[in-house]
Amino acid sequence: MVLAYDRASGAEVWRSTVTEQVPHEAGHNTNTFASASPVSDGERLYVSFGSRGVYCLDLNGKTLWSRDLGKMQTRAQFGEGSSPAVSGDTLVVPFDHEGESFIVALDAKSGEERWRQTRDEQTTWSTPLITEFNGRTQVVTNGSNRVRSYDLATGELIWECGGQAGNPIPSPVRFEDNVIVMTGFRGYAIYSIPLSSKGDITDSETITWIEEDAAPYVPSPLLYQGQLYFVKANNGVLVSRDVKTGELRIDQTRLPDISTVYASPVAANGYVYLTGRDGTTVVLKHGNSFEVVAKNKLDEEIDASAAIVGDEIFFRGKQHLYCVAKE
Protein backbone atom coordinates (compact mmCIF):
# COMPACT_ATOMS: atom_id res chain seq x y z
CA MET A 1 0.00 0.00 0.00
CA VAL A 2 1.15 3.53 -0.81
CA LEU A 3 -0.15 6.48 1.22
CA ALA A 4 0.09 10.26 0.86
CA TYR A 5 -0.44 12.81 3.63
CA ASP A 6 -0.95 16.56 3.69
CA ARG A 7 2.28 18.16 4.90
CA ALA A 8 0.57 20.96 6.81
CA SER A 9 -2.11 18.99 8.65
CA GLY A 10 -1.07 15.33 8.49
CA ALA A 11 -4.45 14.45 6.99
CA GLU A 12 -4.49 11.49 4.61
CA VAL A 13 -4.77 12.67 0.99
CA TRP A 14 -4.97 9.27 -0.71
CA ARG A 15 -4.04 5.62 -0.36
CA SER A 16 -3.51 3.05 -3.09
CA THR A 17 -3.28 -0.72 -2.77
CA VAL A 18 -0.99 -1.77 -5.61
CA THR A 19 -0.82 -5.49 -4.81
CA GLU A 20 -1.84 -8.09 -2.24
CA GLN A 21 0.39 -11.16 -1.94
CA VAL A 22 1.38 -13.85 0.52
CA PRO A 23 5.05 -13.36 1.56
CA HIS A 24 7.41 -16.13 0.46
CA GLU A 25 9.98 -15.29 3.16
CA ALA A 26 9.60 -14.50 6.84
CA GLY A 27 11.88 -11.45 6.99
CA HIS A 28 13.91 -10.06 9.89
CA ASN A 29 11.95 -8.84 12.92
CA THR A 30 13.28 -5.30 12.37
CA ASN A 31 12.35 -5.29 8.68
CA THR A 32 8.98 -4.81 6.95
CA PHE A 33 7.61 -5.75 3.54
CA ALA A 34 7.81 -2.06 2.57
CA SER A 35 11.32 -1.07 3.64
CA ALA A 36 12.34 0.51 0.32
CA SER A 37 11.88 4.28 0.06
CA PRO A 38 9.65 5.70 -2.69
CA VAL A 39 11.24 8.12 -5.15
CA SER A 40 9.72 10.79 -7.39
CA ASP A 41 10.83 12.80 -10.41
CA GLY A 42 8.20 15.46 -9.70
CA GLU A 43 5.76 13.96 -12.21
CA ARG A 44 5.45 10.34 -11.09
CA LEU A 45 6.03 8.28 -7.97
CA TYR A 46 8.07 5.06 -8.09
CA VAL A 47 7.84 2.36 -5.43
CA SER A 48 9.67 -0.95 -5.26
CA PHE A 49 8.25 -3.79 -3.20
CA GLY A 50 11.04 -6.11 -4.38
CA SER A 51 9.59 -9.58 -4.89
CA ARG A 52 6.12 -8.06 -5.09
CA GLY A 53 6.94 -5.76 -7.99
CA VAL A 54 7.92 -2.24 -9.00
CA TYR A 55 5.11 0.28 -9.38
CA CYS A 56 4.74 3.69 -10.98
CA LEU A 57 1.91 5.94 -9.75
CA ASP A 58 0.80 9.42 -10.68
CA LEU A 59 0.75 12.00 -7.90
CA ASN A 60 -2.91 11.28 -7.26
CA GLY A 61 -2.22 7.63 -6.44
CA LYS A 62 -3.28 6.03 -9.73
CA THR A 63 -1.10 3.09 -10.85
CA LEU A 64 0.37 3.81 -14.29
CA TRP A 65 2.48 0.67 -14.76
CA SER A 66 4.08 -2.20 -12.85
CA ARG A 67 6.90 -4.68 -13.42
CA ASP A 68 7.48 -8.08 -11.83
CA LEU A 69 11.23 -8.74 -11.54
CA GLY A 70 10.94 -12.12 -9.84
CA LYS A 71 11.37 -13.36 -6.30
CA MET A 72 14.28 -12.43 -4.07
CA GLN A 73 15.89 -15.05 -1.87
CA THR A 74 17.50 -12.86 0.76
CA ARG A 75 20.35 -13.91 3.01
CA ALA A 76 19.03 -15.66 6.15
CA GLN A 77 15.56 -14.46 5.06
CA PHE A 78 16.38 -11.01 6.43
CA GLY A 79 14.04 -9.40 3.90
CA GLU A 80 14.36 -6.78 1.18
CA GLY A 81 15.23 -3.11 1.41
CA SER A 82 17.11 -1.59 -1.54
CA SER A 83 15.38 1.47 -2.96
CA PRO A 84 15.14 2.40 -6.64
CA ALA A 85 16.80 5.53 -8.05
CA VAL A 86 15.53 7.77 -10.86
CA SER A 87 17.31 10.15 -13.20
CA GLY A 88 15.64 11.81 -16.16
CA ASP A 89 13.55 9.20 -17.95
CA THR A 90 15.28 6.17 -16.42
CA LEU A 91 14.47 4.23 -13.25
CA VAL A 92 17.22 1.98 -11.87
CA VAL A 93 16.30 -0.98 -9.66
CA PRO A 94 18.94 -3.10 -7.83
CA PHE A 95 18.17 -6.81 -7.35
CA ASP A 96 21.02 -8.35 -5.37
CA HIS A 97 20.06 -11.55 -3.53
CA GLU A 98 21.09 -15.17 -3.01
CA GLY A 99 19.87 -16.13 -6.47
CA GLU A 100 20.90 -14.60 -9.81
CA SER A 101 21.60 -10.98 -8.92
CA PHE A 102 21.23 -8.13 -11.40
CA ILE A 103 20.63 -4.43 -11.82
CA VAL A 104 17.99 -3.24 -14.28
CA ALA A 105 17.12 0.09 -15.91
CA LEU A 106 13.47 0.74 -16.79
CA ASP A 107 11.86 3.42 -18.90
CA ALA A 108 10.34 5.73 -16.29
CA LYS A 109 7.26 6.48 -18.39
CA SER A 110 6.39 2.98 -19.60
CA GLY A 111 8.23 0.52 -17.35
CA GLU A 112 9.84 -1.15 -20.35
CA GLU A 113 13.28 -2.63 -19.74
CA ARG A 114 16.17 -0.67 -21.25
CA TRP A 115 19.11 -2.77 -20.05
CA ARG A 116 20.05 -5.37 -17.47
CA GLN A 117 23.44 -6.35 -16.06
CA THR A 118 24.08 -9.53 -14.07
CA ARG A 119 25.99 -9.05 -10.82
CA ASP A 120 28.29 -11.41 -8.94
CA GLU A 121 26.86 -10.34 -5.58
CA GLN A 122 25.04 -11.78 -2.60
CA THR A 123 22.15 -10.00 -0.87
CA THR A 124 22.79 -6.27 -0.74
CA TRP A 125 20.55 -3.59 0.75
CA SER A 126 22.27 -0.54 -0.70
CA THR A 127 20.56 2.07 -2.90
CA PRO A 128 22.38 3.26 -6.07
CA LEU A 129 23.73 6.77 -6.57
CA ILE A 130 23.06 8.28 -10.01
CA THR A 131 25.40 11.16 -10.83
CA GLU A 132 26.71 12.95 -13.93
CA PHE A 133 30.43 13.34 -14.61
CA ASN A 134 32.01 14.82 -17.72
CA GLY A 135 28.86 14.46 -19.79
CA ARG A 136 28.26 10.83 -18.82
CA THR A 137 25.78 9.75 -16.16
CA GLN A 138 27.02 7.00 -13.85
CA VAL A 139 25.07 4.57 -11.66
CA VAL A 140 27.29 3.77 -8.66
CA THR A 141 26.37 0.64 -6.69
CA ASN A 142 27.93 -0.77 -3.56
CA GLY A 143 28.41 -4.51 -3.16
CA SER A 144 30.08 -7.15 -1.01
CA ASN A 145 32.43 -8.14 -3.82
CA ARG A 146 32.76 -4.91 -5.77
CA VAL A 147 31.75 -1.30 -5.96
CA ARG A 148 30.68 -0.81 -9.56
CA SER A 149 29.79 2.10 -11.81
CA TYR A 150 27.51 1.60 -14.82
CA ASP A 151 26.64 3.91 -17.70
CA LEU A 152 23.03 5.02 -17.14
CA ALA A 153 22.29 5.08 -20.88
CA THR A 154 23.72 1.69 -21.86
CA GLY A 155 24.47 -0.33 -18.71
CA GLU A 156 28.14 -0.59 -19.68
CA LEU A 157 30.49 -1.21 -16.74
CA ILE A 158 32.69 1.89 -16.40
CA TRP A 159 34.81 1.00 -13.37
CA GLU A 160 34.88 -1.39 -10.43
CA CYS A 161 36.73 -1.66 -7.14
CA GLY A 162 37.02 -4.46 -4.58
CA GLY A 163 37.70 -4.08 -0.90
CA GLN A 164 34.35 -3.52 0.79
CA ALA A 165 33.32 -5.64 3.78
CA GLY A 166 30.23 -7.89 3.69
CA ASN A 167 26.57 -6.85 3.58
CA PRO A 168 26.99 -3.23 2.43
CA ILE A 169 23.92 -1.10 3.11
CA PRO A 170 25.03 2.58 3.22
CA SER A 171 24.32 4.47 0.00
CA PRO A 172 27.21 6.07 -1.91
CA VAL A 173 27.61 9.86 -1.67
CA ARG A 174 29.41 12.26 -4.00
CA PHE A 175 31.85 15.07 -3.18
CA GLU A 176 33.29 17.08 -6.06
CA ASP A 177 34.68 14.49 -8.53
CA ASN A 178 34.79 11.58 -6.08
CA VAL A 179 32.26 9.08 -4.79
CA ILE A 180 32.52 7.78 -1.22
CA VAL A 181 31.35 4.25 -0.42
CA MET A 182 31.42 2.49 2.94
CA THR A 183 30.32 -0.52 4.93
CA GLY A 184 30.60 -1.63 8.54
CA PHE A 185 29.59 -5.26 8.95
CA ARG A 186 32.31 -7.67 10.13
CA GLY A 187 34.94 -5.18 9.12
CA TYR A 188 35.09 -1.50 8.20
CA ALA A 189 35.84 0.12 4.87
CA ILE A 190 35.55 3.67 3.53
CA TYR A 191 36.77 4.33 0.00
CA SER A 192 36.90 7.64 -1.86
CA ILE A 193 36.99 6.82 -5.57
CA PRO A 194 37.41 9.26 -8.49
CA LEU A 195 34.51 9.25 -10.95
CA SER A 196 37.15 9.47 -13.70
CA SER A 197 38.21 5.88 -12.97
CA LYS A 198 38.26 3.24 -15.70
CA GLY A 199 38.29 -0.55 -15.45
CA ASP A 200 39.31 -2.47 -12.32
CA ILE A 201 41.02 -0.11 -9.86
CA THR A 202 41.25 -2.54 -6.92
CA ASP A 203 44.41 -1.87 -4.85
CA SER A 204 45.52 0.82 -7.29
CA GLU A 205 46.82 4.33 -6.64
CA THR A 206 43.72 5.65 -8.37
CA ILE A 207 41.78 5.47 -5.10
CA THR A 208 41.86 8.88 -3.41
CA TRP A 209 41.83 7.66 0.20
CA ILE A 210 40.87 4.64 2.32
CA GLU A 211 40.02 4.33 6.02
CA GLU A 212 39.25 1.09 7.87
CA ASP A 213 38.81 1.95 11.57
CA ALA A 214 35.05 2.66 11.68
CA ALA A 215 32.12 2.78 9.26
CA PRO A 216 28.31 2.35 9.45
CA TYR A 217 26.47 -0.92 8.90
CA VAL A 218 22.82 0.04 8.31
CA PRO A 219 22.73 3.88 8.22
CA SER A 220 24.08 5.86 5.29
CA PRO A 221 26.62 8.62 5.96
CA LEU A 222 25.74 12.31 6.00
CA LEU A 223 27.81 14.58 3.77
CA TYR A 224 27.43 18.15 5.01
CA GLN A 225 29.59 21.17 4.23
CA GLY A 226 32.71 19.17 3.53
CA GLN A 227 32.36 16.71 6.40
CA LEU A 228 31.22 13.10 6.57
CA TYR A 229 29.19 12.20 9.65
CA PHE A 230 28.44 8.55 10.41
CA VAL A 231 28.11 6.04 13.24
CA LYS A 232 30.30 3.03 13.93
CA ALA A 233 28.45 -0.13 12.84
CA ASN A 234 24.92 0.32 14.28
CA ASN A 235 26.18 1.76 17.54
CA GLY A 236 25.53 5.18 19.04
CA VAL A 237 29.14 6.18 18.39
CA LEU A 238 29.74 9.16 16.11
CA VAL A 239 32.71 9.67 13.78
CA SER A 240 33.35 12.58 11.43
CA ARG A 241 35.95 12.86 8.67
CA ASP A 242 37.00 15.48 6.15
CA VAL A 243 35.39 14.27 2.95
CA LYS A 244 38.18 15.47 0.69
CA THR A 245 41.16 14.00 2.57
CA GLY A 246 39.66 11.43 4.96
CA GLU A 247 41.29 13.26 7.86
CA LEU A 248 39.62 12.62 11.20
CA ARG A 249 37.58 15.57 12.47
CA ILE A 250 35.67 13.95 15.35
CA ASP A 251 37.05 10.72 16.77
CA GLN A 252 34.75 7.95 17.99
CA THR A 253 32.43 9.65 20.49
CA ARG A 254 29.45 8.18 22.32
CA LEU A 255 26.10 9.86 21.54
CA PRO A 256 24.22 10.55 24.80
CA ASP A 257 21.25 8.22 25.42
CA ILE A 258 21.57 6.53 22.00
CA SER A 259 22.66 2.88 21.89
CA THR A 260 21.59 1.59 18.47
CA VAL A 261 21.06 3.43 15.17
CA TYR A 262 19.38 2.40 11.92
CA ALA A 263 18.31 5.85 10.67
CA SER A 264 20.77 7.92 8.65
CA PRO A 265 21.84 11.32 10.04
CA VAL A 266 20.47 14.48 8.42
CA ALA A 267 21.48 18.15 8.64
CA ALA A 268 20.14 21.67 8.19
CA ASN A 269 21.06 25.23 9.15
CA GLY A 270 24.37 24.25 10.71
CA TYR A 271 23.03 21.37 12.81
CA VAL A 272 23.29 17.58 12.54
CA TYR A 273 20.41 15.34 13.67
CA LEU A 274 21.01 11.72 14.73
CA THR A 275 18.09 9.49 15.73
CA GLY A 276 18.39 6.26 17.69
CA ARG A 277 16.14 3.23 17.42
CA ASP A 278 14.42 4.10 20.71
CA GLY A 279 13.21 7.44 19.29
CA THR A 280 15.88 9.69 20.85
CA THR A 281 17.24 12.42 18.56
CA VAL A 282 20.49 14.17 19.43
CA VAL A 283 21.24 17.50 17.73
CA LEU A 284 24.89 18.48 17.24
CA LYS A 285 26.41 21.72 16.09
CA HIS A 286 28.20 21.18 12.79
CA GLY A 287 31.97 21.47 13.07
CA ASN A 288 35.18 19.81 14.14
CA SER A 289 34.18 19.43 17.79
CA PHE A 290 31.47 17.33 19.45
CA GLU A 291 28.91 19.83 20.76
CA VAL A 292 25.40 18.68 21.73
CA VAL A 293 22.83 21.50 21.51
CA ALA A 294 19.59 19.56 22.07
CA LYS A 295 18.17 16.13 22.83
CA ASN A 296 14.57 15.01 22.39
CA LYS A 297 12.70 11.70 22.56
CA LEU A 298 9.59 10.40 20.84
CA ASP A 299 7.94 7.47 22.60
CA GLU A 300 8.21 5.17 19.61
CA GLU A 301 10.80 3.08 17.81
CA ILE A 302 12.30 4.83 14.77
CA ASP A 303 14.31 3.05 12.09
CA ALA A 304 13.56 5.29 9.10
CA SER A 305 15.72 8.31 8.29
CA ALA A 306 14.28 11.73 9.10
CA ALA A 307 13.33 14.07 6.24
CA ILE A 308 13.81 17.84 6.45
CA VAL A 309 11.69 20.21 4.36
CA GLY A 310 12.00 23.94 5.08
CA ASP A 311 11.47 24.47 8.82
CA GLU A 312 9.90 21.04 9.30
CA ILE A 313 11.43 17.67 10.13
CA PHE A 314 9.47 14.45 9.59
CA PHE A 315 9.98 11.21 11.52
CA ARG A 316 8.40 7.89 10.55
CA GLY A 317 7.98 5.80 13.66
CA LYS A 318 6.86 2.21 13.98
CA GLN A 319 3.21 3.30 14.27
CA HIS A 320 3.01 7.03 13.60
CA LEU A 321 4.26 9.77 11.27
CA TYR A 322 5.50 12.87 13.13
CA CYS A 323 6.10 16.43 11.97
CA VAL A 324 8.21 18.68 14.19
CA ALA A 325 8.00 22.32 13.11
CA LYS A 326 9.46 25.63 14.15
CA GLU A 327 7.04 27.64 16.30
TrEMBL record:
Residues 2-247 form the Pyrrolo-quinoline quinone repeat domain. InterPro entries: PQQ_b-propeller_rpt, PQQ_rpt_dom, Quinoprotein_ADH-like_sf, WD40/YVTN_repeat-like_dom_sf. It comes from the Bacteria. PANTHER family: CELL SURFACE PROTEIN, OUTER MEMBRANE PROTEIN ASSEMBLY FACTOR BAMB. This is Pyrrolo-quinoline quinone repeat domain-containing protein. It comes from Novipirellula rosea.
